[in-house]
Amino acid sequence: MRPFPPAASALLLALSLGTPLAAPLAQPADTTKVSTEPLFTIRDAWIAGGFALGTIAMFPLDKHLARKLQDSTIQANRFFRHSATSVRVITESAWYIGGGLYLVGRLSGQDEMADLGLHGSEAVAVGLGLVTIGKALAGRARPRVDVNDPGHFVVGKGWSHEEYRSFPSGHTVMAFSAAAAVTSEVSRFWPKQKYLIGTLMYGGAALTGGSRMFNNAHWASDVLLGAAIGTFSGMKIVKYHHSHPGNKIDEWLLGVQVVPMPDGSVALGYRIVR
Questions:
Q1: Phi first, then psi: what are they for 266, rounded to 5°?
Q2: Which of 57, 215, 239, 262 is packed most tightly, with the most Cβ within 10 A?
Q3: Domains and CATH numbers, the chain
Q4: pLDDT per residue over 152-167, tens digit each?
């Protein structure tokens, strides 16, 4: 079957039983070829440390940048206001877009589209899972509470007050998780498209972070840390799935398929996901 155009899949994500089990749909791949490379490496630790230091270094600039963006001239710009709203809505629709790509890919037999939708959605879920507790515990006040006080942290207050869940930015985590997952998948399936799609996806993710600052919902350091967590989440989800063929998530959500039988009935079949 003709593969679904990669640019269309990625742009959609940036925007946004019958008889017993049948025989396998395809010859099983060699599932013993599981990668021996660790999921997290020393290099990852150095990169994470660099982002942590960068986030700390950003703290002194938080107030200056927040006040700049709340300047009446900038806030009155209709293009900025509408763009910020549009980017936020698209980011919040990531679940629907990813789920839609997965379902359409499964129903139409487009394996790459289903893979893209599933792993993109999974990366967003993992990224948000990582930051949800952290946001609540950190208890950092959003800029709109007091734009002159970026150091306002009340440990644990985020559990009960939404205005104290600023650190890090959840929207930015979602956007960069999706961007990293989609770019990583495109690099595997359609390597010639990776630079184009990567630029579009990461560019859109950066706009998401900027929109949260424009809306006075996050400080710059919130956005920087959110971008780092999201990028790690997306890259590691894709790396894990494709270095561990036959893992249970892919086996059930990508491998099991409905198979038409010669007598007109249907059965469940499976294929080993590489």
A1: -125, 160
A2: 215
A3: 6-14+38-241 (1.20.144), 244-274 (no CATH)
A4: 999 999 999 999 999 9
